[in-house]
Amino acid sequence: MIELVGITKVYPGVTALDGISLRIGRGEVLGLIGENGAGKSTLMKILGGVVAPTAGVVRIDGVDHAALGVNESMRAGIAFVHQELNLFENLDVAANVCIGREPRRFGLVNRRAMRARVAPLLERLGADFGPDTAVAGLSIAQRQLIEIAKALSIEARVIIMDEPTSSLTLRETERLLGVIDELRTGRVSVIYISHRLGEVKACADRVVCLRDGRVVGELAQHEIEHATMIRLMIGRDLKALYVPPEAAQAGGGCVLDGVVTEAFPQQRVDLAVRAGEILGLAGLVGAGRTSLARALFGIDRVLGGSVLLDGSAVTVGSPREAIRAGIYLVPEDRKRSGLILDMPVVENITLASLRRYARLMLVEKRREATVSAEQRRRLSIRAPGNDTQVVTLSGGNQQKVVLAKWLSMSPRLVIFDEPTRGVDVGAKNEIYGLMRDLANSGVAILMISSDMEEVIGVSDRIAVMHEGAISGVLERPDFSELNVLRLAIGHGLETAEAG
Amino acid sequence: MVPKKELGLLILLVVISAVTAVLNPLFLSGVNLLDMANLIGLFGIFSIGEGLTIITGGIDLSVGSMFSLLGVVFIDLVANRDVGWPVALAAVLAGGLVLGALQGFLITRMRMQPFIVTLCGLLIYRGAARYYTDDSTMGFGYSDAADTLSWLAAGRSFGVPHSFIFLIVVAAVLGVVLHRSVFGRYLFAVGKNEEAARYSGIATNMVIAGAYVLSGLLAGVSTIFLVFYTNSVSPSTFGNFYELYAIAAAVLGGCSLRGGEGSILGIVLGTALLQVLQNLVNILGIPSSLNFAVMGTVILLGVFADQQLQRRREKAIAVAAQRARMMGVTAAADPAV
């Protein structure tokens, strides 16, 4: 019925998908697994008609489509249950299910017909709420059911669920798996994307694994085991990126003692980042790494525990306080929070330390320009001049401007959140070099990264987060994709083989 | 660096003045010019404060009503309560400062929208002024207690109105503050990208509140000049719409309502242009009922022209960036889709 043939998607500089072919059978539950960035989301966007493939076709009922539009995708019966749900909170359940297709009488919405249409769908899904319930008061699990009801009401043949259980409780997850069973008996297919291998094992009839934009393996139902799935997900060649530190450091650094963040109020984070080391922080998307960074930098409140720098506790109530203590953040979204894009390079570099280049509160532009020129040379930022607007620079050079801002000051702990996202290969290596130089000068570095190659290639040690807590810390001899992945999905190092 | 926007505005100002002068030479008479200078001074001072709030990405709708409230308080203190003018002056300036600080507090700490906060300010201050005076006009009567201040505010030196001289001083001082000081840089940074500014350790709340405090203080100063210009205050009409003149002047002068853009020189030129337009309506015998219509049309055309130029400039930047990338500096691939 629905088939992907040789789908390729090339972004400038990156091949996100490389000749993927995939068939979805009627009433089949297909588990789709793979690491962060393996290409799962891009593939599903192509199926949904949001992104057009560079090559390949989507074959629907024997008809080839080179580029599927959103409407064609919908008409073909492909529906999404998103990670972020798209419901109108101010409307009730029935109105949400029928949105855009309301039954009408005399041009007005026929509420009775709408209710009659929605009630049996909810019943079929075993919902514990009726069509008149207001959406605003419902839980995420209940909202998911509304999305599924919506999909059923347009007679969807394939429902794509992208990490549907990431914010569900155990019981809600079990119920969702029940609903998936119910869909299967109704001959509706489900593409189930999840990092939670237990759930995949519980519901999938077949598993396809993506890695680096290719299908690397397929498991029939009887082959679906944790160990086989993990084996498929890992195993790519990692380039040798590692540069060892120059000399052992005398101690010091940053210690997190039972830090509690807003995202995971039940979890305590204990972690030590030694001065002079690069500590990689790995984990799945949503494991709480960015929340931890935000708390340490004073953007979110630290709900409990303490942060110690070189043995003494520091308070980080705001980025201002964090910066004063010597904790700097190179944020994940540099365009939004790292840079002021339509300000010149020089003003971005000196923004955080402007008072140093001022006398009587007036900025001494010559000193400012000198510092900026020095930083540009030191980090080899390729910009025509100090007054170039940052928006015109390439991603790598923009990231270096963010770095230059902090390097012109005196850091003690620098947190890099996805430091090379959207950065080309050459600039990547330069940024790794700068991080190493910074570590060698005695700074503690915490590098959050979802890029396995980067985590394993650059870090001196790797800490892994799982659902808000540190699930393990690996030393260099234990570095492997397998170990990082096991810790990231919450399996212990020993138990994973058995699972 | 040539401030292109200001240059364009200056040319527009000169052209409109020249055309008006040709149509009616009285435009260039000493009396008319000095009269205009006085009005430019009166309106320019608080327009600068307005501009500062707009640069942070906000707006201050309350200044017109502030004039009314602070104006009746001032006259009441001087004429009815025998308070010396220095004390009354201090009270008005402090009043502007406090009202500005209050609005700044609500906007930054309580996270309320500037438009709402200052709109409510507009309503509340106006109401308070009318209640305070039982809605009747207040004048100085026969009191000459404030003669010195009256001369300072409404007098002339070497023929030049003091309000105009004071505007030049305020513009010079705040020009340095905005374009040379740390605070000024922070104002632009906060207006362009508040989050990135906060991530750079800037106390963004203090910076934004500072803009409203300055706007309030300058409104207090303007109150004194306006009171001595009219010599009386009718609380229901005094300063009506003046916040709109200020916003118009700031926008005409290159401040973007999105924040992060603008200059003191631009705001002063914008004020001047508005006053020249008003004068033109009078002096060319255009029905004065068309006053606002003329002003609105010119602002609309001015902002439209500026936007077209801006778009061309952005295109030039994009082309330059592309060329830079082709010369070996590779572009960022963006796989994070």
Q: What key phrases describe this protein's structure?
A:
heterodimer; A: alpha/beta; Rossmann fold; 2 domains; 24 strands; B: ABC transporter involved in vitamin B12 uptake, BtuC; two-stranded antiparallel sheet; two-stranded antiparallel ribbon; 13 helices; 4 strands
Fold and architecture overview:
Chain A is α/β, with parallel strands linked by helices and about 500 residues long. Chain A has 2 domains: about 1-235, Rossmann fold; about 255-499, Rossmann fold (3-Layer(aba) Sandwich). Chain A has 18 helices and 24 strands. In chain A, the strands form 6 sheets. A 6-stranded mixed β-sheet of chain A has the order 6-9-10-3-11-12, sandwiched between helices. Chain A is globular, with a radius of gyration of 25 Å. Chain B has about 325 residues and is mostly helical. Chain B has one domain (about 5-290): Orthogonal Bundle (ABC transporter involved in vitamin B12 uptake, BtuC). Chain B contains 13 helices and 4 strands. In chain B, strands 1-4 form a two-stranded antiparallel sheet. In chain B, strands 2-3 form a two-stranded antiparallel sheet. The two termini of chain B are about 40 Å apart. Classes of the chains: A alpha/beta (about 500), B mainly alpha (about 325).
- Rg of chain A from C-alpha positions? 25 Å
Structural category of chain B is mainly alpha
Average pLDDT level of chain B: 90
Task: Kindly estimate the percentage of residues of chain B that lie in beta strands according to DSSP.
Answer: under 5%
- In the CATH hierarchy, the third-tier topology of the largest domain in chain A is known as Rossmann fold
Helix count, DSSP H or I runs of 4 or more residues of chain A: 18
Can you give the helix content of chain A as a percent range?
A: 25-40%
Total of domains of chain B: 1
* Strand order within the widest beta sheet of chain A: 6-9-10-3-11-12
Per DSSP E runs of 2 or more residues, the count of β-strands of chain B stands at 4
By oligomeric state, this entry counts as heterodimer
Percentage of residues in helical conformation of chain B: over 70%
